């Protein structure tokens, strides 16, 4: 572990750091610290600071990932956070602030994200204070390490506390615990560290305030969008290009189904996300002790049970859609009819897609789709997929690198 620059940064575990901690506690500025500290982790890879920070916040907010981690426990791990960029890409390049916000939304959080060039110091100061006096929302910073006198480039970490001394001091809970300890930093200095441009996006860095969604959406959904920031454009563009000239709902749906032919799996079941754990061969010379083997076998039985429970819910939903959803009867595809139906319901709820169509057709689509979306279960599943779509679109808009966001 490296030593902190001593000019402005104060180690959390030093005498002065403890004094600031005590003062922050008296001021009520450590309400975020306690739930975050219970979930404090070390990023798993050198470039995992963003997903490590998000994983810590998701668990601190007690968001249900709807995926079993080990045995009966549902718990976020960093390897689950891949809906905006493939993990292999993240291992090499990390994630940007827009991708961080996209991941947060895909996994059940509301994210209010500000780039440094679109905010003021006073707004940042208020956001820090509001987040540290609450255990129901947390603030993550994307900042330049060099601006704080540290080695390295861009970094993410959650904010754990605030103290009014010395013009305002912020407790940064550094998720690269192998590199630097947690520390107190002057709030103005922290804000200034958001300003340097991220060479990946040619934009400054910033911060994101995260809280649980107020509606029941993605975390408990049965399906997930099969797209990342890299593939979203190749999925979205052909769909609207092939349907923008349609005048009737029938022609529109025919064109939409045809356009989807080159992308047969736009939505996937979460069934494959539920990993099975198999015990080692008990005859192997490297097999665990009998007690460990029993625990491992129990883990296998629990994971099988989770898969069976999921499959039961999935089958029930499929039957429900067959009986209740008019669009299901229209969708004539030879593959994944349930998944394609939910994908279309989600897509047709996106204003960025609808506004490209003829006005009369827009009204007809809203009326037809609205009938199916009156059903709460169908609406929840379609809403979960739509939120993932909107998260990817928001990421593209923030970074200005997707054609479907420029029109």
Automatic annotation (TrEMBL):
It is an enzyme of class 2 (transferase). Signal peptide: none annotated. This is glutathione gamma-glutamylcysteinyltransferase. InterPro entries: Papain-like_cys_pep_sf, PCS-like, PCS_N, PCS_N_sf. Its EC number is 2.3.2.15. It comes from Discina gigas. Keywords: Cadmium, Metal-binding, Transferase. PANTHER family: GLUTATHIONE GAMMA-GLUTAMYLCYSTEINYLTRANSFERASE (PTHR33447). The lineage of its organism: Eukaryota, Fungi, Dikarya, Ascomycota, Pezizomycotina. Residues 1-215 form the Peptidase C83 domain.
């Amino acid at each position: 572990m490296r030593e902190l620059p001593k000019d402005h940064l104060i180690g959390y575990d030093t005498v002065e750091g403890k004094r600031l901690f005590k003062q922050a506690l008296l001021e009520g500025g450590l309400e975020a610290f306690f739930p975050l500290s219970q979930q404090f982790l070390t990023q798993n890879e050198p470039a995992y600071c963003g997903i490590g920070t998000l994983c810590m916040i998701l668990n601190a907010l007690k968001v249900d990932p709807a995926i079993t981690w080990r045995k009966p426990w549902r718990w976020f791990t960093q390897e689950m956070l891949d809906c905006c960029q493939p993990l292999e890409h993240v291992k090499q390049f990390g994630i940007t602030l827009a991708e961080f916000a996209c991941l947060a939304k895909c996994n059940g959080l509301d994210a209010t994200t500000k780039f440094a060039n679109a905010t003021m110091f006073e707004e940042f100061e208020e956001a820090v204070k509001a987040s540290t006096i609450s255990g129901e929302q947390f603030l993550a910073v994307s900042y330049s390490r060099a601006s704080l006198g540290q080695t390295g480039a861009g970094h993410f970490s959650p904010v754990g506390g605030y103290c009014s001394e010395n013009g305002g001091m912020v407790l940064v809970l550094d998720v690269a615990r192998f590199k630097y300890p947690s520390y107190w930093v002057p709030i103005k200095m922290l804000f200034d560290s958001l300003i340097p441009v991220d060479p990946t996006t040619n934009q400054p860095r910033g911060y994101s305030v995260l809280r649980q969604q107020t509606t029941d959406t993605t975390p408990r959904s049965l399906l997930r969008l099969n797209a990342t920031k890299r593939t979203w454009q190749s999925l979205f563009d052909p769909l609207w290009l092939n349907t923008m000239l349609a005048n009737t709902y029938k022609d529109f749906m025919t064109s939409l189904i045809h356009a989807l032919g080159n992308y047969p799996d736009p939505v996937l079941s979460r069934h494959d996300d539920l990993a099975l754990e198999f015990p080692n061969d008990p005859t192997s010379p490297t097999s665990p002790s009998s007690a460990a083997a029993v625990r491992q076998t129990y883990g296998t039985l629990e994971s099988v049970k989770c898969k069976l429970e999921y499959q039961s819910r999935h089958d029930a939903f499929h039957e429900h859609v067959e009986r209740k959803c008019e669009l299901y009867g229209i969708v004539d595809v030879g593959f994944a009819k349930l998944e394609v139906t939910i994908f279309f319901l989600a897509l047709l709820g996106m204003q960025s897609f609808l506004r490209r169509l003829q006005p009369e057709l827009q009204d007809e689509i809203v009326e037809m789709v609205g009938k199916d979306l009156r059903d709460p279960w169908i609406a929840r599943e379609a809403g979960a997929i739509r939120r993932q779509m909107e998260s990817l679109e928001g990421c593209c808009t923030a970074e200005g690198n997707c054609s479907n966001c420029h029109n």
